[in-house]
Design brief:
32 helices; seven-stranded parallel sheet; single chain; 845 residues
Length: 845
């Protein structure tokens, strides 16, 4: 065998001398690579770690001696005399950095170490490049002429790896594979196992990060309005006082996104316009957000110069997305989402410009192609296609796609993102599928989000939906389902734009309004028989206006029957109104016992009657928060009625166990946790308590004295129970203080319902003549009041857990254990003593 070539001492000294002479150039090279790679990653991946170094003279000396056979002229042959390494989080980020390197350097060699591993091998998987700088990219990358001259055509190596790959390579690779020892098999197997685990970890990290980045890039979840407004102030201060100009565009984008969430597009323009010439990785998104804000501000004048400037900025952003040239590392997942979003925004902007409709359609189609799983792009694309197409019917294949898109919207809504758009888009898609009742329900849920006043909502959110509907119906009369949504949005707009007390023309306070909804022909006779006593107890105590179905069957007929009975007794204190279509179903005749029947709509019951009743209530000056709906079972129409009432802000109390829409509503994750939905036990006292809230008022100090007395009485008979609701009054939580105040107010109504009365007295006499029957009846009503109080505070039935707001006593009086009933009995026995604190004396009528 021939001996390997060996370097002579003279050759070794000569190589070292030559390398020492060019070493400063490699120092410059390393500094340039570190600067270029750090600045390139700064925007997309600020967490990326960039390392660079020139090979030290001593390290060169050792390698050129050992590798003389391969590199006889090492100083000119070795490619790793300067090296850089970029370490990032995921495989997708590795791909992004690779694209940047390949776009900006001369690639002499590239070696993906993962490709050299066979299917059953695991281990070293870095990406290696041998590069030279490109003179035509020096200016773009910020390499000075002096640096370029120093580096000249010298080569360097760049590695790109993930943190897990780095951990494997830096910790184990050399120890295992460059070890002169003959390592035991189990050591090598353990090393291979760790390599496999890390490779699988990289794959899963990448998959999860890609999914999450896709959601973050595409969808938005904003905190409550107060939190966003506070964050706007903080971000504004940070931007204002930032001294590093390079960081300002990124900070401006953060602030602009918050402002856009609140619909403050004028401030978005003020924030972004000073940075419109930025040339880093923020440029594409910054131009897009600025252009969109300009178009939003000037939507009413699409031919204006400022609207045109907005369109031009969107066009420029789109051009950046399309160009292969990379002046900085880009977040690939976010870049794809930005590409789709700018297409969607440009399509939206061009839609209102004459002669640009075809281009608008193409933009929306392309946006959908980039993000086929995005339901919002799909809905807008289909709306525009239908508008400009002579064929309104969708092909069967599209219906499947639309159903899946609707499911995505509901998943987003459940996750609290893209609200209220998720609900509105589900409504749009349901209209396209001709599921009219579902569409109205989804729109109603979105409206609830708009009207609750807690979240940041674009001021034109409702107007956007109206525009989409008009676009869909362009040139033709809206069909019935579209008209229902139009009417629903009109009611919502009234509620959104009017302040309290300005809803209707009435100057005087209006009678309270009660809506009684539920099953008609479909309700089971046994269920209806159980509902009747609940309604009878509630309606005999109600004064005001009652709205129900107007027919002689089911719940509407039961209401009419009770009204007629109360009238014969001279005890009816309400007006009963029914809303019915011109043509009633054959099994649901109109009921003449109603005081007034309002005819609207042509055939069968639909959302039209419900919307008309709400429009009439608003015309009369009734505020939605003063409306109570009580519901029993019901079908699709009742379901819409419940949801519209919840959307507008009324109290909706449905009795659990009555089946149909009532029970389904309490299990629906998109509706069940709304604070104005009360799932009632099948309990007459609870129904009565929600229908007839107390009207008795007391001066604040007197009320607190009474409430304190109720609390002290509760504590005295509750030793051994959970301590949180038994603290002294000054330290008691607000929820329990309010409960005691409500108990004090309601005490008078309980007494009056059981045959007693109260009167003012300078020295009230203590009433001690309650019978056991009196106590039992009053205790039952007191428990009903307590049920409603806890339900309004957000509690639901379940094993006792105050943290999760669950309580096992939210049941009917008949289901309440006797050892718990004693607390209600003891409480009502104290009524005379406690009312005396307000100067009131109890007597039997």
């Amino acid at each position: 065998m021939s001996q390997p070539a060996r370097i002579t001492p003279e050759q070794h000294r000569d190589q070292i001398k030559k390398y020492a002479k060019v070493y400063p150039a490699y120092e410059t090279y390393a500094a340039v690579l570190k600067d270029v790679l750090e600045r390139g990653c700064a925007v997309a991946f600020p967490e990326a770690l960039v390392q660079s170094r020139p090979k030290s003279v001593s390290s060169f000396a050792e390698k050129c001696a050992r590798k003389f056979g391969k590199y006889p002229d090492a100083v000119n042959q070795m490619t790793d005399l300067c090296g850089a390494r970029v370490i990032v989080q995921t495989l997708e980020q590795v791909r992004a950095v690779r694209q940047f390197i390949e776009a900006n350097f001369e690639i002499l060699e590239s070696d993906d170490k993962g490709l050299s591993l066979s299917e059953d091998k695991f281990g070293y998987r870095d990406m290696h490049y041998v590069i030279q700088i490109r003179p035509d990219r020096c200016q773009v990358l910020g390499i000075t002429e002096a640096e370029q001259n120093s580096i000249d055509t010298r080569r360097a190596e760049i590695q790109v790896r993930t943190w897990l790959q780095h951990a494997w390579a830096d910790t184990l690779h050399d120890r295992i594979y460059k070890n002169p020892l003959d390592l035991p098999l189990d050591v090598r197997r353990t090393g291979a196992l760790l390599a496999a685990i890390m490779e699988e970890g990289d794959r899963l990290y990448n998959q999860m990060a890609d999914d999450l980045d896709g959601m973050i890039a595409n969808y938005t979840a904003f905190a409550k309005r107060t939190d966003v407004e506070n964050e706007i102030v903080i971000q504004g201060l940070i931007l204002q006082n930032e001294r590093n100009d390079a960081k300002k565009p990124g900070l401006a984008l953060k602030l602009a996104r918050l402002l856009a969430a609140c619909g403050e597009y004028n401030r978005v323009v003020e924030t972004l316009d000073p940075h419109r010439e930025v040339r880093d990785a923020n440029r594409c998104e910054l131009l897009q957000d600025l252009g969109y804000a300009l178009c939003k501000l000037h939507r009413a004048t699409p031919q204006s110069a400022e609207y045109q400037r907005g369109v031009q900025l969107l066009e420029e952003s789109l051009a950046i997305c399309r160009q292969p040239d990379r002046v900085a590392v880009v977040h690939l997942r976010r870049q794809e989402s930005l590409h789709a979003r700018v297409l969607w925004r440009l399509g939206w902007a061009l839609e209102s410009r004459r002669g640009q409709e075809h281009r608008a359609r193409e933009c929306l189609r392309e946006a959908h192609e980039h993000e086929p799983g995005n339901p919002y792009y799909l809905a807008d694309m289909l709306g525009l296609e239908i508008r400009f197409s002579s064929q309104a019917d969708l092909p069967a294949s599209m219906r499947t796609l639309i159903r899946e898109a609707c499911k995505t919207c509901l998943a987003h809504a459940a996750a609290g993102i893209e609200l209220p758009n998720a609900f509105f888009t589900a409504g749009r898609l349901s209209l396209l599928l001709e599921n009219a009742f579902e569409a109205v329900g989804y729109y109603a849920r979105g409206i609830r989000h708009v009207l609750d006043g807690k979240h940041c909502i674009a001021p034109d959110a409702l107007e956007t939906e109206v525009s989409w509907l008009y676009s869909l119906d362009s040139g033709k009369k809206p069909d019935a389902s579209h008209q229902w949504v139009h009417d629903l949005l009109a009611v919502a707009d009234r509620l959104k734009s009017k302040t309290t007390g300005e809803i209707g023309a009435a100057a005087e306070p209006q009678p309270r309004a009660l809506i009684v909804a539920g099953g008609a022909a479909g309700i089971a006779p046994k269920t209806l028989a159980g509902v009747r006593p609940l309604l009878e107890k509630a309606l005999e105590a109600f004064a005001g206006r009652i709205i129900s179905g107007g027919t002689a069957i089911g719940v509407p007929g039961c209401v009419a029957e009770i009204a007629a009975l109360l009238e014969t007794r001279g005890a009816k204190r309400f007006e009963l109104i029914g809303y019915i279509p011109e043509r009633l179903p054959h099994d649901a005749p109109k009921d003449a016992r109603y005081d007034r029947l309002v005819i609207c709509g042509h055939e069968r019951f639909s959302p039209e009657q419900i919307l008309r009743s709400w429009s009439d209530l608003l015309d009369a000056g009734t505020r939605p928060e003063d409306v109570i709906l009580i519901g029993f079972g019901g079908g699709p129409v009742s379901e819409v009625e419940y949801r519209l009432a919840l959307a507008f802000g009324a109290t909706v109390a449905v009795v659990i166990g009555t089946g149909g829409a009532a029970d389904a509503l309490t299990k629906d994750p998109l509706w069940s946790r709304l604070p104005n939905l009360l799932p009632l036990p099948w309990d007459a006292a609870s129904v009565r308590a929600v229908v007839t809230p107390t009207e008795r008022t007391f001066a604040g100090p007197v009320l607190d004295d009474m409430a304190t007395a109720f609390h002290e009485n509760f504590v005295s008979i509750s030793t051994g129970r959970l301590p949180e609701n038994m603290k002294p009054w000054p330290k008691l939580q607000d929820t329990y203080k309010q409960a005691n105040r409500d108990q004090a107010r309601y005490a008078v109504q309980i007494l009056e319902a059981c045959g007693f009365a109260v009167r003012e007295a300078e020295q009230p006499k203590r009433f001690e003549d309650f019978t056991e029957g009196d106590i039992e009846r009053m205790a039952e009503l007191e428990h009903g009041r307590w049920n409603i109080d806890r339900l309004r505070a957000g509690y639901r039935h379940g094993p006792r857990d105050d943290q999760r707001k669950l309580h096992n006593c939210l049941v009917s009086w008949s289901e309440l254990p006797d050892d718990i009933k004693k607390y209600d009995r003891e409480a009502v026995r104290k009524f005379p003593e406690i009312l005396a604190k307000a100067g009131l004396e109890v007597y039997r009528r």
